[in-house]
Specification:
Blueprint (H helix, E strand, L loop, with lengths): L9 E7 L6 E9 L4 E3 L3 E14 L7 E24 L2 E24 L2 E12 L9 E11 L4
Antiparallel strand pairs: 1-2, 2-4, 3-4, 4-5, 5-6, 6-7, 7-8
Length: 150
C-alpha cells in the first residue's frame, strides 16, 4: 500500500522568538481526509504530526520563506467493523505509530495585513514503516493562513 495521493488537510502554528527574529518553533498535524483501502480492502487513514525548528527569512514586505526540520510520528489507523475498548474508551480502529523525521519548506505571500497564501512541500522519513511501500512520504500543497503580530 502507498501513502501517496489524496487530500491531506492540516493545522499548523509557529512562534518566532522575537518580532525581528527569523528563528522559532513550529508544529503541525496533517491527516488524510478520506480513508484509503489497504491491500485486501481494510480501510486506513494516516496521520502525521511533528515539532520543528523553523527559520523564516523575510523577502521584503510581501513574502517570507520557511525552512523547517524536526521530529514527530506517523500514526496509521486501520478501521475495524467492530469496536475495540480499553481504559480510555471505545474506538473502531487500531493505531500503529512510528517515529519520523520531518523536513519542509514554503514561501508565505502576504495578501492583506497578516493574511497569506503559502505553497509548501514536506518530506517525512518514517522509521520502520513496514506496512507501506516506502519509508519516505512526500506532501505538497497550498495553505491559507494568518500571521498575528506581523
Amino acid at each position: 500500500a502507498s501513502l501517496r495521493g489524496g487530500l491531506y488537510p492540516s493545522i499548523s502554528g509557529d512562534f518566532l522568538f522575537s518580532h525581528h527574529s527569523q528563528l522559532g518553533i513550529q508544529g503541525e498535524v496533517a491527516w488524510r481526509a478520506s480513508q484509503e483501502n489497504f491491500g485486501g480492502g481494510e480501510p486506513y487513514r494516516p496521520i502525521f504530526w511533528d515539532f520543528n525548528g523553523i527559520w523564516a527569512p523575510r523577502f521584503g514586505k510581501a513574502a517570507t520563506g520557511e525552512l523547517m526540520a524536526g521530529i514527530g510520528a506517523e500514526s496509521s489507523r486501520f478501521y475495524q467493523n467492530g469496536y475495540v475498548c480499553g481504559f480510555t474508551g471505545c474506538t473502531n480502529y487500531v493505531s500503529y505509530t512510528h517515529f519520523m523525521g520531518h523536513v519542509g519548506g514554503g514561501v508565505r505571500f502576504y495578501l492583506h495585513g497578516g493574511l497569506f497564501v503559502r505553497p509548501e512541500a514536506h518530506l517525512y522519513l518514517v522509521n520502520n514503516n513496514q506496512y507501506f511501500s516506502s519509508s519516505r512520504v512526500g506532501r505538497v500543497g497550498v495553505s491559507l493562513g494568518y500571521s498575528f503580530g506581523r
